[in-house]
Design brief:
Layout: H1 24-37, E1 41-45, H2 48-56, E2 62-66, H3 72-79, E3 83-87, E4 97-100, E5 103-105, E6 124-128, E7 141-145, H4 148-158, H5 184-195, H6 197-215, E8 226-228, H7 232-241, H8 267-275, E9 276-278, H9 287-300
Helix pairs in contact: 1-5, 2-3
């Protein structure tokens, strides 16, 4: 089977990690990741969802998001007591977007100096280490900023509301926080994959060029490669029948009753939900694999 994503496997000697919850690898990974994206400070967590949740807690407002989005985002908005306004945008998929104010959701992109390029020292950018993301891991997330006070707030809130200290007995309860901290195992896996990211992205650029040349597109994402087909459900089934795994990223969310949004029809998002597919796109694909995918995609692309 030609897989949609590649997930690296690791054998971990946990005896080298010290404290499995807050071992030195956690701090090492935070520093390495901050340096990679060009930020001064970073705080890891058990998931990017937790960090987005914390980011929106202080608001009591309407948050505008694309309708074509992972359902975790509208769930977070509702669960933090905010309201949703959906808008019609499918081009952001595979990249990052402005969630609200100076909060950026970059679950689908990790690139060198990405934070620096924002040009805002108070901005916060949240990344995901879900296994299939650019820096995959055993789930997990990271928030970065050049504002030290902001990152220390996230650190306190993810650590049950206590100040961080290597010695547990020296920690001081400051607020009613959450159990959202990352673990040494999460940090270890993501840190290993961060080391491989430049080489991975170089190969993905090569694959993207091949796909672009064939399909007449200009995709730039290093996470997903999407094309449009006549019927994405039947396309996935047909591709699977010949040993190729594809995906749908993403279905629209705006007409879900649980989100209580009455803004009407978003035609682009609704159309995209039925025609968009993601082709296999990862660094382990061979040139032969890519040719196989292209030939099969052309065979099934316009079938009902």
């Amino acid at each position: 089977m030609i897989q949609l994503f590649n997930i690296n496997n690791y054998h971990i000697d946990t005896s080298t990690l010290g404290n499995l919850l807050h071992g030195p690898i956690v701090t090492e990974f935070e520093e390495n990741f901050a340096s990679y994206v060009g930020a001064k400070y970073a705080c890891s967590a058990n998931s990017a969802s937790s960090l987005l949740f914390l980011s929106l807690l202080k608001y009591n407002t309407t948050i505008r998001i694309p309708s074509t989005i992972p359902i975790v985002v509208p769930n977070i908005i509702v669960n933090t007591g905010n309201k949703i306004e959906f808008y019609d945008d499918v081009d952001w998929v595979g990249s990052y977007y402005n969630l609200h104010d100076n909060i950026f959701d970059s679950a689908q992109q990790v690139s060198r100096n990405q934070y620096t390029d924002l040009g805002d020292d108070d901005a916060v950018m949240v990344f995901s280490f879900y296994p299939t993301k650019p820096v995959g891991g055993c789930d997990g997330g990271m928030v970065v900023s050049n504002n030290k006070e902001t990152i220390e707030w996230y650190r306190t809130m993810t650590l049950n509301g206590v100040s961080f200290d290597e010695d547990n007995w020296n920690r001081v309860q400051k607020v009613a926080g959450y159990k959202m901290h990352s673990t040494s195992i999460q940090a270890y896996i993501a840190n290993e994959n961060l080391k491989k990211l430049d080489a991975k992205n170089e190969r993905l650029e090569q694959i993207s060029k091949i796909y672009n040349n064939h399909f007449g597109l200009s995709r730039t994402s290093k996470h997903l490669y999407r094309i449009n087909v006549r019927d994405n459900v039947s396309f996935l089934e047909n591709m699977k029948s010949v040993g190729i795994s594809c995906g749908i990223h993403y279905k629209h969310c705006h007409n879900k009753e649980c989100y209580s949004w009455n803004g009407g029809v978003l035609p682009l998002s609704e159309s995209e939900s039925t025609i968009t597919v993601s082709l296999p796109f990862h660094e382990m694909l061979t040139d032969k694999d890519i040719e196989t995918v292209i030939q099969a995609a052309e065979k099934f692309r316009y079938r009902a």
